[in-house]
Model the fold of this input.
Amino acid sequence: MAHEYIMGIPVDQLTYDMILEEVPQYLSSGEKMTAISVNPQIVTQARNYPEVIDFIKTSTHRIPDGIGIVLVSKLTGGKINERVAGFELMQKFLEYANLYGHSAFFYGAKPEILQDAVANLKKRYPKMRIAGAIDGYTTLSEDQVVEQINQAAPDFLFVALGFPRQEQWLARNSERLKVSIFQDVGGSFDVLSGHVKRAPQFYLDHHLEWLYRSLSNPARIGRIFQLPVFVVKSLWWKMRNNE
Done:
């Protein structure tokens, strides 16, 4: 599939429908789909984590997760016209799993958040089989986590350890996991659990969820300035590299 580079990080020209159309192929072929978010935070910080850059480059689906990615693409003559939000894609994967009776495993978040998220998922997607769940504070070793997931052999694995831990973990372990579809989902379990509310519809409709999260959390207020800084840096990089 076609892709573009933003500050050296590849981003695919994707839509939700394009990704979902390929799910049956990965589930039946034994190949692995890695649907990895590429957003302004990851692009600006990835240089500090070479293993994350390598993992993104070798992933099958580098999703344009953020209006900043779409904006930079448009400003540089690219063809990324649609944001593919990680949380929305996860919901579409869950709906697919529920529709066809597939299984899913959930790894990450605090124990109480994971517990509530799983309880809500059982109610919302009754035909999806929850193969297992491990919180992000487990005392299990990495090998034990991998072994437990492999014993469950889920179709979908959602990893919510936050950037860069989730990408680093997937980079180390995706090849040895018996899973078809992988996705890094950041704080999605917090929302699914009900502990964190999504932005009001107005913010979602205008691609301003990042602004709502920053305004509603004083610890994140500095992130308001990240988007304009990201756009300026990306445009400067494009001018210098012409990729």
Notes: The first strand starts at residue 3 and ends at 6.
